Amino acid sequence: MLRKYQINRSILALAICFALFSETAAASGEISLEGEYWNPHVSGELKSSVNIDVKNDLGLGHSSIADLKLGFKGDKGPKYFIKYENPSFNNTGSLTHSLNFDGRDYSAGDRVTSSMDVKHYQFGIQNDKITPGGKISIIYSYNHNSIHTGIQDVTQNFDRNKDGTSDALNVGFAWESLNRKGINFFAAVTPLSIGTHGGYLDYNAGVKSEIGKTMTLTAGYRGERLEAGKTSGSDGSTINLKGWYVFLGSGF
Question: pLDDT tens digits, residue range 66-121?
Fold first, then answer.
């Protein structure tokens, strides 16, 4: 029942954002679409009777991730945006030590397939201010995380699964240089997160280059911390992603 309520709340937030976007687009503003590719390292832990390290215990490592970000900005006022990413990881190997996951004991040497599927939705408002030192932004966002983890015993064909979600309100800050030659440096951080069953934090920095009048190529380094299913004394997941990325953006 709780899971259904959280999903419906995400749909409601999405509907509100689209309503705001439609109003903004009608004011002859700018629509932007950004596609991002990165291949981050993954680390973190699951709390299921005992703490399970997703990298050292389950062998989960790199994953290629494609993100999409859609934004709308009117002639005046803030920028509204929606972002979606879906990191997924899997590995088949032998456990180096025993562990308990979702009430089932796995022994050292058991051959298992571990998998993790993460979904992150972000709906935000970005307020920009032009200063002599560049563009400074304050970003307010709602973030919904969903983390699914599974462990399957390959030999006995027996599996266990855990799911967790979280909802959080965030405040972030960004800076971007405004060079006339079209090559700019930037940095952003989201250090403040207030949520239920977990939260979301991120940081990134890099360089942005304009290609023509409507295209932008960006490269940099970023990190994310996603939490889900956290309640006092019960299971929860914490996932950290760090790595280099590149994305292509277009405004029209």
Answer: 888 888 887 778 999 999 999 889 999 898 888 888 888 888 888 999 999 999 99
Under 8 Å between Cβ of 61 and 11 = no
* Residues whose CB falls within 8 Å of the CB of residue 97, separated by 6 or more in sequence, listed in order: 57, 108
* CA angle (216, 220, 225) in 5-degree steps: 120
Which string of b and e fits 19-49 if b means at least 16 CB within 10 Å? eebeebeeeebeebebebebebebbbbbbbe
Domain ranges in the chain are: 2-251
For 186-232, how does the pLDDT look when each residue is reduced to its tens digit (9 = 90+)?
A: 999 999 999 888 899 999 999 999 888 788 999 999 999 999 987 65
Is residue 84 within 8 Å of residue 190, measured between CB atoms? no
Partners of 127 in the β-ladder: 138
Query: For the domain 2-251, what is the CATH code?
Result: 2.40.128
Q: Which position has the token pair 């939260």?
A: 199
- 3-class secondary-structure state, position 100: strand
CA separation, residue 26 to residues 22, 23, 172 (Å) = 6, 5, 27
